[in-house]
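TASK: fixed-backbone design
INPUT:
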């Protein structure tokens, strides 16, 4: 709503969607984000879905 510009609004929307997805799946957003940032360097690209706040197969 008060993002300053269109790009800021797009970035804010991404965070809002992330927090909503996490809450809908009973995941604490800060803890998930912290854990993901700690694991991301060692995570193989073909296992990227392991880092999502919801499993890909559950979202389909």
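OUTPUT:
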């Amino acid at each position: 709503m008060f993002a300053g510009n269109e790009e800021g609004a797009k970035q804010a929307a991404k965070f809002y969607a992330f927090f909503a997805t996490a809450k809908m799946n009973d995941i604490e957003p800060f803890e998930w984000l912290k854990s993901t940032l700690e694991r991301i360097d060692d995570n193989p690209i073909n296992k990227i879905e392991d880092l999502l706040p919801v499993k890909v197969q559950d979202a389909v």
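COMMENT: The longest helix spans residues 6-24.
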